[in-house]
């Protein structure tokens, strides 16, 4: 840059020269000497302008107006879901007290944020029926990766067994976490009619090398795993850790993992008061039973409550944070080092607003509307929904006999509907199929409109 930029103080030529001299290089290019020449861009960037701020705003607005506007919430399944966020949730998390103190680096004077995290942990423990929950997991995938490493450290074993229909993105993150630790990830077969985990194959695979058995309910494809107690018994018989993955909203209807013997629970907190926001930030749920060995190996933070010595007032404390930022790296249980506290505050407010009855009502609404959609879609010629004969919560599969899933989605989009996620690239055995999602955000009119568009798209 040959002249000073109004927003970049260090772009003043004299200052740049002084900085280069101070660090002992002659030009900016010297700072990139380690990057191979073939990878370095030498041309001019194709960026329009320069424009004034007013002109930039106008250009951006015109570009945004070209976006397609959907008639309703997306029907796209796969891991981030449309749920209504009450206005009070945004009102609370947008307060400066939370926005500016999202992480308790000085816990003794961060009582407000510590209390909010403590309330979140308490609500999660009640929701999943576990003894202890932490904070600071990025999302469901990272929580699963951390749970697998925890299981390996405790058991000194190197294999984790997972369902066949695990989320491919979640599986990729799991392998990224466990690969450098020398762990192996193996899929357990499924029943071709129901999609359920095949118990006989699970029994054959669990052995003295199995660190953990992981199950999801609802599964990535939306059906509830019906053999959760039996799976836990098989895992525990070989002294493996039993990890359960959950959709938090489903716990308004389905059994809490603690009631069927899970040792560790992971899941996604995005549906609990956090907007979709184009895919993030998300909130990883991580909880465990009362086993002290597991608690000591948990990643992230655990906030506790005590009282002051002098005047016996309630005080919130950082009970445990075995993160690499705070103890010697080789002693840390995890290198996860950011914080999702603002998302957890949103979830705490959301759960407090709904309460047990509200959460049950929400779960019933999701499942009833999803099942209405399933019935309507299944009546279409050349369409089957769902593929597997199992109870589905809010997500379900749709198989097309005459059309490709991508082609169907193009027609749906032309009608203003975001269709399901094509599954053939991830699971070829499912053929031309897609993963749909229906929540409380989808009205009967929305579903009927989707079905009408599907009828045209699939014929």
What does this structure look like?
The structure is a single chain. The protein contains 13 helices and 13 strands. By secondary structure, it is α/β, with parallel strands linked by helices. The chain folds into two domains: 87-351, Aspartate Aminotransferase, domain 2, CATH 3.40.640; 356-458, Alpha-Beta Complex (Aspartate Aminotransferase, domain 1), CATH 3.90.1150.10. It has a seven-stranded mixed sheet, sandwiched between helices. A four-stranded antiparallel sheet has the order 10-11-13-12. It has a two-stranded antiparallel ribbon with strand order 8-9. It is globular.
Radius of gyration: 25 Å
Largest sheet: 7 strands, mixed
Give the N-terminus to C-terminus distance in angstroms. Answer: 59 Å
Mean pLDDT: 92
Count every helix, treating DSSP H or I runs of 4 or more residues as helices. 13
Our estimate of the beta-strand percent is: 5-15%
> Any idea of the CATH class of the largest domain?
Alpha Beta
